[in-house]
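ok here's the first one, seq then struct tokens
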Amino acid sequence: MQLSRKALNARWAWTTGAAIVLLVVLNLLDSELRARTGYGTVGMQGVSTGWGIRSIADHWTSPPDAVLAGFALGLDFLFIPLYCAALFFGSLAALDHYAPRPGRLRRVMTLLALAPIGAAICDVIENALDLLMLQRAATDTMASIALEATAGKYVGILIGIVLSLAALAGRFIKAKGK
């Protein structure tokens, strides 16, 4: 299935707008949790030991804090396909603008356009491990794998953002031949 340029730009616009709104909501929830307990759900992303995860979880023992943490983690799972779609559509828009014809640049940009999908896969692994560590005994191995998945997620997101910004710049800066 091929998308027209107009349909691609429309999907890119609404998924990006919705992802930004949901990102703001997630940050507000995380800020509230961090203000109440000293730790937010984002803080789990930089922890490489099982003890560190348990330490964070121990701060979320009261029911309102546990519910807020659980809701934020659940909402983060819903955020994954939204940001993945937004960055993927932005990457496709960059591909359409900068590499419209077959060649080496198009092949490279096509592979780079898959980075947001890789980021989403890494994010699912990270979130699943975080939930597993919160429900059961957190081990250093699980925390280390979650940390590596977080790093992979951020690389994929960064590539998607760079390509999306390049596509956005391409909309305002016309090529010499056009």
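and now the second one, same deal
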Amino acid sequence: MHSGPVVALLASLAMGASACGSSSNSTTGRSARSGSAATQPGQPVRFLPNGIRTLARGRLPDGQRFSILAQHYTFQGRRYLTLSAQEDNGDGSGFNPGTEPGPMPFSSLLTCSRKPVTVVYGLLRTASDTPILRSAHRSLPLTRAPIPTDLPAGGELVYGLASSAATLILKSSTGSVEQSVQLPGFPPHPPCTPGSTTSVIAIGRSSH
């Protein structure tokens, strides 16, 4: 668990990490408010013009607001696009979907305010696919939000909330299940510390 402002520079860039199924890679740090930042000495990250954009806004059950951002920048001469979720208090995390395989790479941000809730967000690469968040009581499609065409996303943003154990399911236009990933249960392990956040990036192979 951790708390702190949303990081603009992803561990998948600095560490070159990737995995199949799910992982506990998470990132924290200072929010970038200028045209450049640094992950390590001599390795600056430079944000492109209009490189930080708000794609969607929402509200948690306790009233706290959150935003999902796209961050477009260069690192070591290459361009990257990051998706990140951030609470209004600055807590958050993100990931680089461009480095991850699969039809819908996603990340989940667990926020521990008054009641634990998970913000699930990711990149839907095929518009005809349908992402569903299924819990014991209901199944709901994820909300869709367009990503500006000048950003190299290759898909659209999808996101939703889960306040209990849930499964993220991706169905094709024919109804077949392409991806099925179990989200962490509640209460989470380790338990939530009030005011903290943590994230899990789930990528690649489905678990069905």
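notes on #2: Residues 11-14 form the longest helix (4 residues). The chain has one domain: 11-203.
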